Amino acid sequence: MSSIWLRLEHLLGKVQKPARYIGCEDGARAPDHAPHKVAWLLAYPDTYEIGLPNQGLQILYEILNERPDAVAERTYAPWTDLEEILRAEGLPLFSVDTHRPAGDFDVLAFNLSAELTYTNVLNMVDLAGIPVRVADRAPGDAVIGAGGHCTFNPEPLADFLDFVVLGDGEEAVGEVTEAIAGWKDAGKPDRRSLHLALAQVEGVYVPALYEPTFDGPRMTGIAPVDPRVPVTVEKRTIADLGAWPYPKRQLVPLTEVVHDRLNVEVFRGCTRGCRFCQAGMITRPVRERPAEQVKQMVADGIRRTGYDEVALTSLSTADMSGIEDIVQSTVGCGDNISVSLPSLRVDAFTVNIAADIQSARRTGLTFAPEAGTWRMRQVINKLITEDDLYAAVDAAYSQGWRRMKLYFLTGLPTETDEDTLGIATLARNVVEIGRRYHKHPSVKVSVGGFVPKPFTPFQWFGQNTQEELFRKVNLLRDELRKDRQVQLTWHDSRASVAEGIASRGDRRIGRVIEQVWRNGGTFQEWSEHFDLGLWTDALAANGLSLEDVVYRHREEDEVLPWDHLSAGLHKDFLWQDWRDALDELGLEDCRWTPCYDCGACTGYSIEHVVASATPPAGGSQGTGQRVVVRSGAG
Amino acid sequence: MTAIRVRFTKLGKVRFTSHRDVARIFERALRKAAIDVAYTEGFSPRPKIAFGLALSTGHESLAEYLDIALPESRDVDATEVPGRLSPALPAGIDVAAAAPVQPGDASLQESVTSCTWRIELRDTRLEAADRLVTTALAADELMLTRIRKGKEVTDDLRPAVLSLAIDDFADAGPHVALLAELATQPRGLRPNELLQVLDPEVEAGSVLRIAQWVARDGAKVEPLVPREDSSVVRDHPQHLALARRRSPAVA
């Protein structure tokens, strides 16, 4: 086992952004490999700039390297220029820490955060010199695993992954290490024994041990092929975020990456209940980090990294108990420290927090009303009224912000043209409010195409066709053509279609992904490489259709490809929430109101960890509005 | 005193970082080392630091320079700066010396007149390299067409080649290497351009900037005013051995 650095070094002079491949980050560990240790190569299936900041991988990197029985390094997808050189020179995928060949590790574990990276997973496994299909792997080949939000429907990658971890990885990663260590000690006998050992770990799904059945085009079930394997795999949830103050030494890259700042996770999980949001559904319940620990992590992090920007991360950071105090403490950590709160809630309270923190850099503020009309927002359970938005925007303009960015989705269930055009009306009204304070206020409107996700109330919804999404975007473009102060950007509707194929596809989509990859379809997240034709050709070649896989409404009693997996949520809860959505009925945030038994707490005997017993200013949706909602049972 | 000038290295894996990356690395290092720096005004204040000639991504250097502006009426002991900054920098970037910038000193960008380079030639025999050097030095002109600001420009590079020789250092490694002093003014000559005019077939291996030179009072000196009381050279055994042979300024 040795480094390929000396063979790689002069080749790096020939590629774009070679600093992607050198490692050397502050916080990187000097890995201490030993035969008795399980060697993990943690992989992100996109470029270094996108993958390095991934907090999940950074957390696991530290936890594994602290264990006496494990060692972990990292790798990212080499850009096409380096891939070409590697293949020409016969060099494999390598770790950035010590430039060891990927095939020399015991485990290659991917973070799956976006469906369009799936073809890169296959490409990286292939570049590692490992057969892409589980069925073709010899006992000595590295074990291929995955974690991250996309694994809640792992079926499209079932043919390629030895194991999948559902939910929080902090505890599971150690148990997986032990299972692999046992198999390694036994001399890596047949792969089936490895699979059986992994399947005993709670939260671990081993696709090869389950077999789906079909009746014509319809999936009729999926069941274990071995009695020792659980019928349903439950996700893992850590009960107390405070017990896991990771990353302790966030990696500081030498070259620029996305989210290039100190990131401190203030809570995990979200119960606002936005019905389109998979992250909010699968990460329940809310688990706040103790405020004192947040402050300590911020203070230590600033001192150690030299960053002058701190992001307090979560799915809705303004909901954190005592957020004002945490923000004040963060700002006080040094001169010129700026704080960013990703996922701002839309209300004046939130703007006031933002005002506290951005005394120096008050340039732009982003809100996500998600839909253009109140009716539509009731359907998606994003219970912000127009008045909430206008009050927030007014507060922001009056306190010196000049640029507003508004995020919306189109292609939502029950959406009419009136709802779509409501986006234009909101944007124009925001411009009008801005005119009271500035001569030329600028409003950026970003519109994404909605892709239904597993384990959400919208999992039964037939995705809008590519033509329909395209038509809606054009409707908005026409409407806003003369509004020069509103800048409209939109997501490519063709990419939404490909995302839809992988999002809710069953095991048959594996052949589609493999074919897209074999035909050169890597880096599908990148517009310059994305090619919908590769996907539709591959679907057709495998006897599948967009209509059936993406556009079709699912039936209530239909078997879904992820029915043998569980995020804790009861399927009848999700179905009821889907019916409520169609009835335009909102649902309260259960962190401050009685439980309605979605299953995420009760199923695992855990609870919300929320320091404040009362909701933030203005009610359980934080908006100060009286809205019709379905209350909890208790 | 209003600014401190430091000399630093860029060696090993970090050579693949860009000029912009290095600027950001220093911004973080200054904050980590708690060195008070003057900040720019405006919406997005940045530390006031100024680099000299950009080093191409992938080239190494023993002699990069950086001016750090200090806040009004703040006195920083220059001799402390290398010891405080180096631990805050990644492996391969080491601050070797620091000195106050004298009032009236020209900016780094303006004042550097030439650089000394060590340029490895891949897959080239010593005799062939020797011929290249002899031919180049004997030539009246060395014409090369380059793209400058989107336009093709053909000019004579011979005046910019101030010295050229084979590096005869015994432990230099497996590749034959050139030592070249190349002018930076009026028009700079880059190591890769030199190779292109010598022999377009020859591929550069590792390229190392050994020194940068400024003209002061008719003499050629390094940009960091060499005064015993304020200049500090820290010990880098493996590189200093190399540096000491090449550059009298790194003594």
Can you describe this structure?
The complex is a heterodimer of chains A (634) and B (251). Chain A is globular, with a radius of gyration of 24 Å. Mean pLDDT of chain A is 93; it is low at 622-627. Chain A has two domains: 5-226, Rossmann fold, CATH 3.40.50; 261-508 and 544-604, Alpha-Beta Horseshoe (pyruvate-formate lyase- activating enzyme). By secondary structure, chain A is of the alpha/beta class. In chain A, strands 2-1-3-4-5-6 form a six-stranded mixed beta sheet. In chain A, strands 15-16-17-18 form a four-stranded parallel beta sheet. In chain A, strands 10-13-14 form a three-stranded parallel beta sheet, covered by helices on one side. With 251 residues, chain B is of the alpha+beta class. Chain B has helices at 19-32, 81-85, 108-111, 126-138, 191-198, 237-246; strands at residues 3-10, 49-51, 60-69, 95-100, 112-122, 143-148, 151-156, 161-166, 176-183, 203-216, 219-221. In chain B, strands 1, 2, 3, 4, 5, 8, 9, 10 and 11 form a nine-stranded mixed beta sheet that branches. Chain B has a two-stranded antiparallel sheet with strand order 6-7.
The number of helical runs of chain A is: 20
| pLDDT averaged over residues of chain B | 84
Report the sheet with the most strands of chain B, covering strand number, pairing sense and barrel closure: 9 strands, mixed
**Tally of structural domains of chain B:** 2
Uncertain residue ranges of chain B: 227-251
Distance between the termini of chain B: 25 Å
- Kindly name the structural category of chain B: alpha+beta
* Count of individual beta strands of chain B: 11
CATH superfamily of the largest domain in chain A: tm_1862 like domain
Q: Which oligomeric state applies? A: heterodimer
> Gap between N and C termini of chain A, in Å?
60 Å
Strand order of the largest sheet of chain A: 2-1-3-4-5-6
CATH architecture of the largest domain in chain B: 2-Layer Sandwich
Instruction: Assign the CATH class of the largest domain in chain A.
Output: Alpha Beta
Strand content of chain B: 25-35%
Strand elements of chain A, count: 21
Derived structural class of chain A: alpha/beta
Global geometry of chain B: elongated
